[in-house]
Amino acid sequence: xxxxxxxxxxxxxxxxxxxxxxxxxxxxxxxxxxxxxxxxxxxxxxxxxxxxxxxxxxxxxxxxxxxxxxxxxxxxxxxxxxxxxxxxxxxxxxxxxxxxxxxxxxxxxxxxxxxxxxxxxxxxxxxxxxxxxxxxxxxxxxxxxxxxxxxxxxxxxxxxxxxxxxxxxxxxxxxxxxxxxxxxxxxxxxxxxxxxxxxxxxxxxxxxxxxxxxxxxxxxxxxxxxxxxxxxxxxxxxxxxxxxx
Length: 245
Known about the structure:
The protein is built from ten helices and four strands. By secondary structure, the chain is mainly α. The longest helix has 40 residues.
């Protein structure tokens, strides 16, 4: 195992940047943001990095691939300066979020297949939901569902007199498809086109393809998170050993 407490002179900013595929300015910016531990300064005032900084940058790169650069930048300082136990809990939460997203996409696929088969035995009236129930199930705000309705993406039924929204099995399926694709960064016009095809022509190749793309993307994100977790574990363990020693 690499000894992070090496007495070597240190790495220059250029050397660190090259080792992780970043620019020197990116390395300086990430250090300033706390994504990696502060570097020591040599007698000449230049930064002197160690291998632990390279590990931290590679952990950040993997984490950014898993959850996005901005959330990764926000989370890394807490991970590298906190306890190993706190870091493990934070990583577990990220895995849980990815698992939930994967579950939601599979539910969208299941509902899509049921709609395409035009079956009625898969759902019954007890499967309908109110707006608050559906929002909670999808992990979105009720205002998002109202916005999707305004855009014509989801069409709930209206209970007479009270005009309360009630989402049928088909509306729930459409909402799941919208939620899955919005989480993947697809814009409303693209999603609207997919749903229009589904409603008018029964064309499903694009809808299935987009949902499959989301599942594939989540698989890559999960693997990136595993890589980042391993690098963070190495970094934090060595930091703890160094502090104890």
